[in-house]
Amino acid sequence: MDRPLMVLGDQMHFIGSLELHNSSFPSGHTMAAFVLAGVVTLVIRNNRLSAGLFCLALLVGVSRIAVGAHWPMDVAAGAALGWFSAWAGWKLAAHWHGATTITGQRLLAGLFLLFALMLFWLDTDYPQALGLQILIAISATLAILTYSWQVWRKSGV
């Protein structure tokens, strides 16, 4: 289905890039927010933190409707897929024992470093967020390099 801007046209005030003419289903921002909230909830198991993260993820979804980028069904689907993805990843991680080996840790570190470095070149079409994007990329790169150094020292290689 077309995004609200394409259907409602001049009847709404759209906030953001006008290049959002592709399909709107599901809301990727909402899905990402619910994946993060779900993973933290499943790992930390703190009711107050979980409730707070759920409220923040819900606000992300509502904001996607408010800015005219998504329909309520897009947001609901993004939330459901996000929660399911968090649960599925958590279940898979519980049964994968590769992270306990040096080879598995190196593999994960290499993948994480690749993703962190990709953030430097990711074009999000949001120039206002470029500073935050670079800060996240630098932080993630430094974190994984620190972790990699610890794994390297532990392995004695």
From TrEMBL:
<feature type="transmembrane region" description="Helical">
    <location>
        <begin position="106"/>
        <end position="122"/>
    </location>
</feature>
<feature type="transmembrane region" description="Helical">
    <location>
        <begin position="51"/>
        <end position="69"/>
    </location>
</feature>
<dbReference type="Pfam" id="PF01569">
    <property type="entry name" value="PAP2"/>
</dbReference>
<keyword id="KW-1133">Transmembrane helix</keyword>
<dbReference type="InterPro" id="IPR036938">
    <property type="entry name" value="PAP2/HPO_sf"/>
</dbReference>
<feature type="transmembrane region" description="Helical">
    <location>
        <begin position="75"/>
        <end position="94"/>
    </location>
</feature>
<dbReference type="InterPro" id="IPR000326">
    <property type="entry name" value="PAP2/HPO"/>
</dbReference>
<feature type="transmembrane region" description="Helical">
    <location>
        <begin position="27"/>
        <end position="44"/>
    </location>
</feature>
<keyword id="KW-0472">Membrane</keyword>
<protein>
    <recommendedName>
        <fullName>undecaprenyl-diphosphate phosphatase</fullName>
        <ecNumber>3.6.1.27</ecNumber>
    </recommendedName>
</protein>
<feature type="domain" description="Phosphatidic acid phosphatase type 2/haloperoxidase">
    <location>
        <begin position="3"/>
        <end position="90"/>
    </location>
</feature>
<feature type="transmembrane region" description="Helical">
    <location>
        <begin position="128"/>
        <end position="149"/>
    </location>
</feature>
<keyword id="KW-0812">Transmembrane</keyword>
